Each structure stands twice: as C-alpha cells, then as structure tokens.
Amino acid sequence: MSPKIKFDKWTDLYAKRTVALRSSAIRDLFIVASRPDIISFAGGMPDTRSLPMEMIAEATKKVLRKEGAAALQYGSSEGHPGLRECILKLLAEDDIHTDLDDIIITDGGQQALDLLGKIFIDPNDTIIVEGPSYVGAIQAFSGYQANMISVPLDENGLSIDSLSQTLGDLKKRNQKAKFIYLVPSFSNPAGVTLSPERREALLKITKKHDLLVIEDDPYSRLKFGGGKIPTLRSMDDSLIYMGTFSKIFSPGMRLGWITAPKPIIEKLNFAKQASNLCSSSFTQRIVEEYFTNYPWQSYLEKQTALYKERRDIMLKSLEKFFPSDARWTKPEGGLFLWVTLPKFINTAELLAKSINEAKVAYVPGEAFFADGSGKNCMRLNFSYPNKEQVAEGIKRLGELIKSQTKLYKTFTGKLRLNND
Ligand SMILES: Cc1ncc(COP(=O)(O)O)c(C=O)c1O
Fold it and tell me: What is the second-level CATH architecture of the domain 11-51+298-412?
C-alpha cells in the first residue's frame, strides 16, 4: 500500500464478503521464512531444487518449436486436451476411471477450491471441513461466507463418530451441509491418512445423508512405503476429486484439475471462464511434454525418498529435543507433521520469539481451524529444509519450548504438563 494512504476511504464500497477475506498466516510468513538466517518449517513447498532442470529446459524448447503459436495463445477453459489425456492416465493408475470431458484444468488446487466455493456456497451455507483443515481451503470458502463446521481428526483421519454426530445434529435442526471437504491422504496440515475402514464408513454415512464429498488429493503419490490406499473417488464416482501438479512436479506451473460428474464440470467451466478464461496454454504444454516423454516418476521417487529421510530426522529430533508431553503425528507420506503442545503454550504468541531468538519459523495451529482452536499446536514442514537444518531447527525449537515450560513453572509454581 502507498505510504501516503493512511485511511481506507473506500470501506463503504467493499462487498460484504470482503469482511471475511484475510491474508493466510502462511503467506504472511513467506517473506520472513525465506530469510537466509531462518530455518523454515513454515512453507508447504516441494523441493524443486532436485528437479531435472536441463530436461525441463529441453521440454520447454520442444513445446515452443513444435507448437509455439498455440502455446503462446489463449486456450479452452476446460484445458488443453493433451494435458487432460495425461491426467486421465494418472487417474487410471489410481483406479479412477472418468471421461476426458469430465476433467477441467485449473490454476492449481487453489483455484479449484475457489471455483468450487463459487458454484456451491451462498452466504451462511453450512459446509463441513476437517479440524484441522487446509488453510487455503478455509480462506477460499470464507470468501464465499460459508458457515464452516470442523470435525476433528485423529491418527486415522477424520473421526467418523464425530461426523455422524454433526450430521445428526444438523438434521435435528432441519439443516443440511452443502458438502464435506477433506484431504484424506497425508493431510495438510496434520499429515494423517484416513484408514481404509474409515473410508468405507465415510462413504456410507455421506450416502445416507446425501452429502456431497470433495476429495482433495495433492499428496497420495508422495508415499513413504506400505500398500496402496484407495482414493475415495475410486470407491465412489459421484464425488468431486481434485488433483494438482504442484507437489508431484512444480507449483510454479500453477496447474491442477478437478474431475466430477458432468453437470458440476459444466458449472465449473462457466465459473472458470468468468475467473480467468483459461489456464496457461504454455505451462499446460510443458507439463504435458514432461509427463509424456520424460521419466518424471523416477524424479518423484527421488524427491519422495528425500522427504522420507527428512521426516525420519524430524521424528528423531522431536523425540530427543521436545518436551516429553508434546505429541506429534507420524506421517507415512506428504510434506507435514502436526505437533500438539501442552495447553498453556500459545504457538501464535511464541512465533515472534521463535523467529527472533531461535531463528526458526513454523505455522501456528490456529490458522488451520475455522473456529480459532488449535492454539497449542503447530504445523511443521519437512520437505524443504535440508537434513542439517531439520536437526538443528528442531533442536532450537525444542529448547525454546522447554524454556517456556520452565517459565510457566516459575510463574505458577507448578508444572502442569498434561494436556488438560
Ligand atoms: C490440500 C491442499 N490443497 C490445495 C493446495 C493448493 O496447491 P496448488 O494451488 O499449488 O495446487 C495445497 C497446497 O499446499 C494443499 O495442501
């Protein structure tokens, strides 16, 4: 903002929905967390340093030589057919069978969330999200003035008992949620995965209550081992499934997709036209070329192995340096883990000290709840910092948290360490 403008004289002109528009805690942290003196566990970034730059340069050149004019032109709103073919193949590998026409390309998963909000949410509509949920989804849905109800998670993902209770309560009040949004595999922020039994149970209960399901799945291919877990969409073709190239390739390409039943795709297409006409014809073709003619799987495998190594170091360091009553999730894939600290620690208040003194950044837990809970929690990212930074950062953070605990003991005369 220009330093000369002190007051916002346009306040009366803004639409009411802008009241709910906030900057995300993660975007706010972006600048500080990218300072070279800070070890950042705050981002959600894949390690693009390990991508094959020469191959991507070659793929880009090929696109320009082969179909430069089209790549530099507007494209169709539903997306470049060649890239949708690639997506169709990726989906088939996950037992998701759909038509080319039932896929729409978006500017990453984030635009998919915004478009879904745009076509489904009227002010005060109730929707159900996980507690904690992806901060960008909370931000997108808040923009359409949704009334968000959080259903808690545990190590096995969304609590089906709590969901059942929530849906029952809504029914008693003659209300109905428009949809449930969830990240069932290696979730952001918690790093947990919905168990196969709960997947079955979720679909049973959503069917019973005629509740639309939105499955957001950026992370299922970033798996550290074990057997394949079926996507919800492979078990039920009436739901909405979102994917993205951001975590399996590059967020810089800004490309994701939605597959959904035809009438929903049609509405999304109209919303997309109004939003940005089409996604980049250029990056769509580069991604198509890379996913068709280059060994992207082997680079993704290498990256995933790197993330696993960093996760292992983070888990070991947490064990060693965090207070014994802190708890954390043990993700089997993805980019994040979730730490729960004793109740008296407020991670948002601790953040300034953590950045200024320990030189470590993380995202405070309350950013991931629509209702302001999660104050004693934090999200830690292990995909971007290197091994040494992970070990050192967790050590410093652990020491800071322990010093807070000591301080609390001094003030209160007691050490209330249990999570009461
Ligand atoms: C669960 C989830 N959905 C969507 C997104 C949006 O990512 P993008 O717009 O880069 O695809 C993210 C990014 O971190 C995410 O974690």
Answer: Alpha-Beta Complex (3.90)
